[in-house]
Amino acid sequence: MSASAQARVFDLYNQRMGTYIKGTAANSYAGQDAFGDSSGKSTTFTDKIKYNYGGEVGLLFPGAYYGWRIGFEILSAQKMKGIEGDSEVGASLMNLDSTVYGFFPKIAFEYYLIKKPGSRMTLSFGGGYGKIKATNDYTMTTAGTTRYTLSSFTQQMSQLTYTADFSVGYEFMMLQNTSLTLDVGYKYAIASQLKYDQDITDFTGTHKSGDIVTESDGSNKKINLGGPYAGLTFRIYFNY
Question: Is CATH 2.40.160.20 the right assignment for the domain spanning 11-237?
């Protein structure tokens, strides 16, 4: 093999900059956080959020022993579509569409536990600061309007908060300057002081934009987008 051909062999040791796109999936801790305890004291829902998913894009700055990632992450809970809220005797009170998203600029540090020219095992710690936002779109039935004296309405809430995560991953060469990383980890992403994004009258009373969102019992509403997750990342290196 010629020297020029040998110089084109992919070697993770020599990479110093690149880009990446990552996807994650997880069982959800969110459950009925966005709506379950704030849709009227007499309302029960049988459905709940079962999974979260996410995406992240950004730049890579690897070194010989450790590296950095700078990127932007979007988290999403499973969308609830047309779920029914019933009274204690089973009468339909409302139908609900509910979405929960998180948006986070973030930075991560990667330490290479095991290093080879075409693969490596990585321990990663990351964090960021952004926003968790929830939207609940209520369509009230006649029975629901009679019970709560509310017409159909849309409720929006959000909070600036931080996220943190750690993971263990295995990266290996795929094609020329492209690698694939498989990782598992744990993510923290909780909103515990959500505020209304608009003036509204809902199940807990009349509120101004910026008021704290509470449950029916008066406690602060809390939404958890964190928990264990699995991820898959495509990395493209520039200086191959």
Answer: yes
